[in-house]
Specification:
Residues 1-81 form the GST N-terminal domain. Keywords: Transferase. The protein is of the alpha+beta class and 203 residues long. Helix content is 57%, strand content 6%. Strand 1, helix 1 (10-22) and strand 2 (28-30) form a beta-alpha-beta unit. The chain binds glutathione (GSH).
């Protein structure tokens, strides 16, 4: 099997951190999405969403969407980390917080970045005002995340789960990509971010 990736992009880093946590190494094929390597007919025939990361199995079948790829490895690796949750309640909390972090945080942040910078204007119409509004929505979401982390050791649970990987990618993206001073403004996010950053898988 192999993973097609553009290593530095948030969605690929998300999968890489998950695999690091499980201690799994998978061969990578580096492509350049900025240069449009994902826009070829050959790549689009493999990836339903036309994006990276993309996992190709030995039988030639493929899985895209980073969470689906993580789920695949979580199932085949027989690990004891239970990054998608242990109990029924914890699994539901993981699902709930994962969607909240993705919809209100990560993907809203992506919309902000893509529309403010026009980085992909060779393949989509960029609307600056939508980017600005999306960035506002990210700003509005951050206090909610900070409050959650004032009352919980990790985002979805009192222990580390996949949601912390997604939230870590989101906070780093907001801080560096969107230039929002998250860590300076939100002490509970900062406490949690430092804790997650210190994990061996994140080095
Ligand atoms: N929901 C997808 C998002 C994938 C995604 O947006 N990948 C970006 C890199 S972070 C990409 O391939 N961008 C190239 C493009 O939009 O053409 C996932 O989680 O895998």
């Amino acid at each position: 099997m192999k993973i097609y990736q553009t290593a530095m992009t948030p969605s690929c880093r998300r999968v890489s951190l998950f695999l690091n946590e499980l201690g799994i190494e998978v061969p990578r094929i580096e492509i350049n999405v900025k240069e449009g390597d994902n826009l070829t007919e050959e790549f689009k025939a493999k990836a339903v969403n036309g994006r990276v990361p993309l996992l190709e199995l030995d039988d030639g079948s493929t899985i895209c969407e980073s969470v689906a790829i993580c789920r695949y490895f979580d199932e085949i690796a027989f690990n004891d980390k239970s990054l998608f949750g242990i109990t029924t309640k914890e699994k539901a909390d993981v699902e709930m917080w994962h969607r909240i972090i993705e919809f209100q945080g990560l993907y809203t942040g992506f919309q902000a970045f893509r529309n403010l910078t026009s980085i992909y204007d060779d393949r989509e119409t960029c609307v600056y005002e939508w980017g600005a509004e999306s960035k506002n929505r990210v700003r509005e979401f951050l206090p909610q995340l900070d409050e959650r982390l004032a009352n919980s050791g990790y985002v979805a649970s009192e222990r580390f789960t996949i949601v912390d990987i997604t939230a870590y990618i989101f906070v780093g993206f907001a801080q560096n990509g969107l230039e929002i001073e998250v860590l300076e403004q939100y002490p509970n996010i900062r406490r949690w971010f430092e804790l997650v950053s210190s994990r061996p898988a994140f080095q």
